[in-house]
């Protein structure tokens, strides 16, 4: 599998596996370890987390699996996120939903993630959402401390627009290495508002969450979904793909921005389907067929 270079000594697998729904998979620790190993056999070495996933449980689920075979840690890359606070029985002191990017919260969240993941370091730590109340000096201070102590190798953001990215970057002495954004053939906002262009300008490979649009393309019946599904099926036939899943992934992979889609499934067959899409390269005509079916109008 292709690898994407984020820094001189850091690369990610082109596909990233996300553990957002890991608590729903009902796997044992051994089954999760086997699943991680099966992902690695497919070439996927990068795993995406956040402190809040599974009501603050998914990092621990991953970490308990790693404890069964600690040598895997140096063969994978772990991404996790902080900055969202959710009410949860697993965090009795959290009674409301808000953002917290204070120095204290970032440090505490990272320390907890390290403990839950059973690791000494995190490869990339992201601020999960733009925080209107953010003090960028505090974020920079926390990032610098974690980097200096070797607890986090690199940093990035998630769901940031280009001006929000620039603001935080201006307070740092080192580069942010990625922006995790929602992007799919259905969700084009980050293409239209310049966020993806900014990533290309700064040579920042973006991670793409919900690359299959949360499944709505397969189950929805509104006009946009129907147009898009028809176009995907047309391209599927042209490239001899096995499913429109593969076409959706190929649409992202064909873009020059080095987009890294996040796969959120706990089924290895779905992982293999995603990886298969690496064998397809869409022509500009095919790419635009899908794009215009999503926008609902022809290009000027």
From TrEMBL:
Entry keywords, A to Z: NADP, Oxidoreductase
SUPFAM superfamilies, per database record: NAD(P)-linked oxidoreductase
InterPro entries the UniProt entry points to: AKR_Detox_Biosynth (IPR050523), NAD(P)_OxRdtase_dom_sf (IPR036812), NADP_OxRdtase_dom (IPR023210)
NADP found in the keyword field: yes
Pfam families given in the database record: Aldo_ket_red
Gene Ontology CC terms, in alphabetical order: cytosol
Keyword Oxidoreductase in record: yes
Domain NADP-dependent oxidoreductase: residue ranges: 18-290
Family: Belongs to the aldo/keto reductase family. Aldo/keto reductase 2 subfamily.
Protein's name in the database: Oxidoreductase
Species of provenance: Heyndrickxia ginsengihumi
């Amino acid at each position: 599998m292709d690898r994407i270079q984020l820094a001189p000594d850091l690369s990610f697998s082109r596909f990233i596996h996300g553990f957002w729904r890991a608590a729903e998979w009902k796997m044992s620790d051994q089954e999760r370890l086997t699943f991680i190993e099966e992902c690695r056999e497919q070439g996927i070495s990068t795993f995406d987390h956040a402190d809040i996933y599974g009501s603050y449980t998914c990092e621990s689920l991953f970490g308990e699996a790693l404890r069964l075979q600690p040598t895997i840690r140096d063969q994978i890359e772990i991404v996790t996120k902080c900055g969202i606070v959710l009410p949860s029985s697993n965090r009795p002191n959290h009674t409301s939903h808000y953002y917290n990017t204070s120095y204290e919260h970032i440090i505490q969240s990272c320390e907890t993630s390290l403990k839950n993941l059973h690791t000494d370091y995190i490869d990339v730590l992201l601020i999960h959402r733009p925080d209107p109340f953010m003090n960028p000096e505090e974020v920079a201070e926390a990032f610098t401390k974690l980097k200096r102590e070797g607890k986090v190798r690199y940093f990035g953001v998630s769901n940031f627009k280009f001006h929000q990215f620039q603001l935080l970057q201006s307070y740092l002495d080192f580069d942010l290495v990625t922006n995790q954004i929602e992007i799919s053939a259905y969700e084009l906002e980050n293409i239209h508002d310049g966020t993806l262009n900014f990533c290309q300008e700064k040579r920042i490979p973006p991670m793409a969450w919900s690359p299959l649009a949360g499944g709505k393309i397969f189950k929805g019946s509104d006009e946009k979904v129907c147009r898009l599904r028809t176009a995907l099926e047309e391209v599927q036939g042209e490239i001899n793909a096995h499913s429109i899943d593969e076409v959706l992934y190929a649409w992202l992979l064909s873009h020059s921005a080095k987009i890294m889609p996040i796969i959120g499934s706990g089924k290895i067959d779905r992982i293999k389907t995603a990886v298969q899409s690496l064998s397809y390269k869409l022509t500009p005509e095919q790419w635009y067929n899908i794009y215009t079916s999503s926008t609902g109008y022809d290009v000027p």
